[in-house]
Amino acid sequence: MLNVLIVDDEPPAHDVMLHHLAAQGDLAVVGQCYNAAEALTALQTLPVDLMLLDIRMPGFGGLDLLRGLKSPPLTIIASAHRDHALDGFELDVVDYLLKPVSAARFTAALEKVRRRIAEDLESAGDDIILKVDRAMRRFPLRDITCFQAQGNFVRVWTGADEATLATATLRSLEEMLPPGSFTRVHKSFIVNRQRVSEQHPSSLVLDTAMKVPIGKSFRGKVPIFD
Length: 226
Description:
5-stranded parallel beta sheet; 15 strands; alpha/beta; 5-stranded antiparallel beta sheet
């Protein structure tokens, strides 16, 4: 599931984007902002994978927002003005849509987003890249013992007392992680199968001695030791 932030000063533009997004099963709107200042705050507090961004807004514009972000999310620009397209692509936006945005053109832009994500995952190999604070950080999968949900964030456990809070959800991680190596065992936990030392009817013990519960709906479906 990709988390989407809409940034546009015109409410009708939000309505169009929401209509197009409703037809996509793998996208969830986590925020709607009406100027770049609101977007800056949202990007610091919400798990955003994709930003739908207008350019000309009161105060500072969308391009100024992108230039000021150290690690911007994937971005699709939707603008009524074509004269900023080159600037957008120089900032590595995924696509540049001209308003009014048709459903077909919007769907094509989303396919570019999905291809970009797939390419990033393939290049990452045995690592996973997650947003920590305002930076993107690479985590070797072999070092991760488990992921623990915490609201719109996850704790990435790499030791008995070592955890990093990253901007992600367990649902999005399930789509990113290799299923043969990581398993969802609880509504709040995904574990690294290679780091499990003991399995009990209602819990797992990791090689760091951390105890992880097995949710009732997962019992009987979690054969760690095949």
